[in-house]
Amino acid sequence: MQEVAGSIPVGSIMERLLGLLRESRRPSNFDSQRVLSREDFGGEWIMSTMPFEKQLAAHGGNSTQTFLFRQAEKEDFSAIMALQDIAAAAVPKEKRHTFVLLTKEELTESLAEDFCVTVWASRGKARHDAQEEAVLAAFSLVVLNRITDRNLGTYLGYDREQLLRTVTYDTTFVHPDFRGFGLQRIIIGIKSDEALRRGASQALATVSPDNAQSMANTLAMGFEVAERRPMYGGLDRCIMRRILREEQMPQDG
After folding, report:
1. Which of 83, 87, 186, 213 is the most exposed place for a label (fewest CB within 10 A)?
2. Which CATH fold would you assign to the domain 7-243?
3. Phi, psi of 95 (to 5 degrees)
């Protein structure tokens, strides 16, 4: 069987993923008692822990697809980098400046230190092929509330205490074959839930002002523009901020 970038034969990955789901085996650094929140799920409660499956309808309701959401593992490195290449290639040439690639070094660091989400789908179910493959449909990562130059709070002049309460929604990319299923909306809910669990009070992200759709989506998710500045080697970017919880002010007396 010929393999395509970003896909892995079902025997080597999908059975293992579904085994995780059935046997409730989770990565050792994951809180197995965590329950996902309702936020950003369109008002629907997802009473589940990762890994979990969810069947979603494509925009327009023409097709449905079952996706498996789980925390990324170090073994996913190659599939994640391959998906990034696929997603970047799908960006029109005149919009390439709106897409900043995640480096291998950044991904290695984040798989070890941050919170990374993978979303898997069956190629066969999506394309009605005779042979199914597990395909990485989406990837997203949160730079956790730690002291690092990847914490966007450093660009806003945050002090150490503020940085330790701030997470950065670093990157999300979706395979072109699986756009229109609302994956980013669900991923945002997962990331917000994890940020709150980690004690963060705000989330930061960057958006190109030339990417009208991304800007509209980010604003719709409760973000506001905190600052506009050159970043990533001189590219024009807006740093977006979302308050996750109000800070508790110390009481006098």
Report:
1. 213
2. Aminopeptidase (3.40.630)
3. -110, 5
Q: Is 253 exposed, middle or buried (0-12, 13-18, 19+ CB in 10 A)?
A: exposed
Q: pLDDT per position in the chain (253 positions), as tens?
A: 333 344 444 444 445 544 444 443 333 333 333 444 444 444 433 445 789 999 999 988 788 999 999 999 999 999 999 999 999 999 999 888 888 999 999 999 999 999 999 999 976 544 444 445 789 999 999 999 999 999 999 999 999 999 999 999 999 999 999 999 999 989 999 999 999 999 999 999 999 999 898 899 899 989 999 999 999 999 999 999 999 998 764 454 4
Q: Measured between alpha carbons, how far is 205 from 40 in angstroms, rounded to an integer?
A: 16
The amino acid sitting at 104 is K
User: Strand pairing partners for 238?
Assistant: 207, 228
Residue that is written with structure tokens 């914490």 in the block? 151
Task: Find out whether 171 and 140 touch, Cβ atoms under 8 Å.
Answer: yes
Chain centre distance of CA 177: 17
List Cβ neighbours of 23 (8 Å cut-off, separation of 6 or more). Answer: none
